[in-house]
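Example 3.2
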Amino acid sequence: MEEASEKKRMQELISLLNRASRAYYGESEEIMDNFTYDRLYDELEALEKKTGIQLSDSPTARVGYEIISSLPKVTHDAPMLSLDKTKDREVLKSFIGDRKSLLSWKMDGLTIVLTYRDGALFRAVTRGNGTEGEVITANARVFKGVPLTIPEKAEVILRGEAYITYTDFERINREIPEAEARYKNPRNLCSGSVRQLNSAVTAERNVRFKAFTLVKAGELDFDNSVENQMKWLADQGFDVVEYRAVTADSLDGVMDEFARRIPENDFPSDGLVIIYDDIAYGRSLGRTAKFPRNALAFKWADEESETVLREVEWSPSRTGLLNPVAIFDPVELEGSTVSRASLHNVSILRQLQLGLGDRIKVYKANMIIPQISENLTKSGNLPLPAVCPACGGETTLMEENEVQTLICGNPDCPAKAIKSFALFVSRDAMNIEGLSESTLEKFIAHGLIHSRADIYRLAEHRETIVNLEGFGEKSFTRLMAAIEASKKTDAARLLYSMGIPGIGLAGAKLIVRALGSDPEKLSRATTEELTAIEGIGEVLAASYTGWWADEKNRESFEEVLSFVEPADSSIQNTDTAISGKTFVITGSVTHFANRSALKEYIEERGGKVTGSVTGNTDYLINNDVTSGSAKNKKARELGIAILSEEDFLALT
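Structure, written as tokens:
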């Protein structure tokens, strides 16, 4: 009887884990956090050891998951195995024994295999399911850290991690108006970016690459040392994952150093990797069915705190999605106070069997993002709200790709209007200072704003506005000046301000540069015209044309046009001193309204602005050129010039 119960539980775990893997690896979706996945995986593995049974579809018996994209596929020369893992430092010390080993970051992105022939990049392939991967050579050519040519002419094969920094992750998410369309983490964003059918999108997203293993390099001799291989890869022009040589005695100190730096890192990492430096010894150990025996992954033992769930807040978005956020008694985690954690969707909320007053355990995923790891009491008594907290409209439970979400179906929900208007007046859109969400709420409540164009009619309500709490003549005058200034804008900002699903500022710029600034042409663009633009795929094109097909949307745009005069933002001057140069901006600015204005100034002259200082950066702009900031230090290490605004303007 017990064996039958255990087998049933194993089948349940396999189904859960495989569903999560399919979403994670094949669809770039996350329906289960890493902590829960690891806990369920460990439970399955323990049951398999106890019963001696390993079912055919068990994730412990295979690597990765089925590939479902339309990219070409190839079979790897040798299976790409995952690493066995531990959270125990003593296990690492025992693994090292008396041998020199290398400790490095375990990057949280997508593993890629690069092949070079005759000194040129020949092919790039994803890890895929470990046996077969997807060919993404065109995309790899635009990865930061991947040289197109190397000095070595013999065939070279190496592995590394494609990833996206937190800075770029946040930038890209800021350009996506819909909360539900935003990416949950850099790994999901990277997965989709690496597997794009259009490499222009990959380039726009600043995918980066760090090499971590040399597989083959002709007949070269590395004195039987992995460290020598890593040094050689760096000499060939690759960005190499940071590593340190360690022994069992020095391990604790080096691991403590890595741990201290996690909050400062701009790249996602989910642990560390240890590998024997002795190549021959490592090879002699062979492999299991799933793991090589020459290396071991270490996952941080997440600092957990027990607390009490007090509330689940349902935050309405502009598109009607109600996002659940857990509110709990404050706890200290990784050096900061935490009292909130996103639950992402109804599926996760139900999986945790949450109820008010439940005792829960919380942690920071990768020591950064607050998550609920476990519900100790599992009362499951938390009802879903039957009505939207913003409008009282009826809510609907939706399910797509086995993920449940809660939607407000009221098309006139004020939360939708507020979010829509907030996007319209935001800095990257019409840039109307003085219209915060709380101010918009007041104006809507007093019947002053019903549409975007009503913002340009606010002067008609002077008497009402100056008598509102927190307002007066000065506030009114400043607001009118900001509204007047916004009437002259560029076409890309205007297009972005309309909140077309999936069209962020970057996408709007691509469309305007290709089609021009004529509002009529922009509103009548066809799917064929849009998909011909590098960076605009079929999904975005369908979203764009679908938005314009709604007569209400078209009327809203035309009404705004009666007040606004869009300029052509499609012309770039590429014949300048900064054309083709890459800049990073940090600190405050004085000669420009803000850093976004400086970024636009650079882009208009053919330059590019990124978020992190790397070997590909040409200049760092920082008015405090002598500061000891992390970006200044990095620039000095790489020999990159640090410019004040005056230096920059002299350059241009």
